[in-house]
Amino acid sequence: MITPILPTYNRAPLSFVKGEGSWLIEADGRRFLDLAAGIAVNVLGHAHPALVAALTAQAGQLWHTSNLYHIPGQQELADRLVAATFADTVFFTNSGTEACELAVKMARRHFHDAGMPERTEIIAFEGSFHGRSAAGIAAAGSEKMTKGFGPLLPGFTHLPWGDHAALTGAITENTAAILIEPIQGEGGIRPMSDQDMKDLRALCDEHGILLILDEVQCGMGRTGRLFAHEWAGVEPDIMMVAKGIGGGFPLGAVLAREDAASAMVAGTHGSTYGGNPLACAVGNAVMQIVADPEFLDGVCVRAGQMRQKLEGLIASHPDIFTEVRGSGLMLGLKCKAPNMDVINAAYGQELCIVPAADNVVRLLPPLNITQDEITEAITRLDRAADTLSSSG
Ligand SMILES: *Cc1c(COP(=O)(O)O)cnc(C)c1O
């Protein structure tokens, strides 16, 4: 018999009832160190006082009005994002996949209004993840996400990850945009090199193509810069953001340059909830902390500590792990043992980590995790690996 909750997830037998910083408290009282952070969402951990204060203050004032009216908190958050990034304009969504929908619409409408309506094709990449909406699954293109859901939204081409020659060859007179994650998250923490990012930007410029970056997972301070593309010194035309921007409150955004966005005039897009007062109150509180250069420097320091300890962990468990990859606090351990065995062993040590494709486990801690908590996490991972070695 089907369950009251549509059974689309294989859930761990854990029910968390409270969160404190980097810790989750299970219904039975056990304290788990949280290196999942709601899949890279809780960038400031759980129950951060500034976020709780912002949300509760707004909750006592006004929850929702719709976008029929001006929303002061939304204006403030858009101003912050425009000031801190390449973007000239922002549209707020509730999730990453809705950001994908708009990114695709925006790119197509741009060329439509520019007198090039034939330019509708979007080049995307194998192993990518852009969410579960119609555009999101068409963009990712994998059998796992699209099987049985056809007819899929047309106009997507999929190329192998990291093959620049294939990319150059795939561009046609119908290409509108290239859509890519600077670091594939679900795909197994697979980063693009800075040089590849520069080459990609140059290729887009050469052919007049829009560059859409999906920074839903790697953005919002995760790599130690506000957005991952900043490391390569290039800028996208359109960027998808979600996850970390709400710190745990559902919020997403599409950021864009004026030229890319200018066809999106009144009536072309909308959202009942997008950028509502509650979401933007939290988003502003997150931005205030995370966009601070000192905070981002701290992320780089903690990332260096974590990476060094992970290298040590791999050296002492070559039978379980083979390499560490990623950037900042978006780290992946490539496993020799099945990744789900590693994750279950970690649960046994009261540690939450996340699976990814390519037999990788992801470590996506709160960006304000302490040095002691990093040490504790590695100790727990080490013990989890011990239990696998002795049972294997
Ligand atoms: C999670 C994710 C999405 C989808 O976000 P939702 O909020 O789940 O719709 C899109 N792109 C990337 C890179 C993601 O990690």
Summarize the structure in words.
- Pathway: Amino-acid biosynthesis; L-arginine biosynthesis; N(2)-acetyl-L-ornithine from L-glutamate: step 4/4.
- It is found in: Cytoplasm.
- InterPro entries: AcOrn/SuccOrn_fam, Aminotrans_3, Aminotrans_3_PPA_site, Class-III_PLP-dep_AT, PyrdxlP-dep_Trfase, PyrdxlP-dep_Trfase_major, PyrdxlP-dep_Trfase_small.
- GO terms for molecular function: transaminase activity.
- Belongs to the class-III pyridoxal-phosphate-dependent aminotransferase family. ArgD subfamily.
- The protein is of the alpha/beta class.
- It folds into two domains: 16-34 and 293-391, Alpha-Beta Complex (Aspartate Aminotransferase, domain 1); 50-290, Type I PLP-dependent aspartate aminotransferase-like (Major domain) (Aspartate Aminotransferase, domain 2, 3-Layer(aba) Sandwich), CATH 3.40.640.10.
- The model has no long low-confidence stretch (mean pLDDT 97).
- The strands form four sheets. It has a seven-stranded mixed beta sheet, with helices on both faces.
- The radius of gyration is 21 Å and the shape is globular.
- The protein contains 13 helices and 17 strands.
- The chain has helices at 37-40, 49-59, 72-84, 96-113, 134-140, 143-146, 164-170, 194-207, 258-261, 277-290, 293-316, 339-348, 371-391; strands at residues 16-20, 23-26, 31-34, 89-93, 121-125, 156-159, 175-180, 183-184, 190-191, 210-214, 238-241, 252-256, 321-327, 330-335, 351-352, 354-356, 360-363.
- Helices cover 39% and strands 19% of the residues.
- Residues 95-97, 129-131, 181, 185-186, 214, 216-217, 242-243 line the site of pyridoxal-5'-phosphate (PLP).
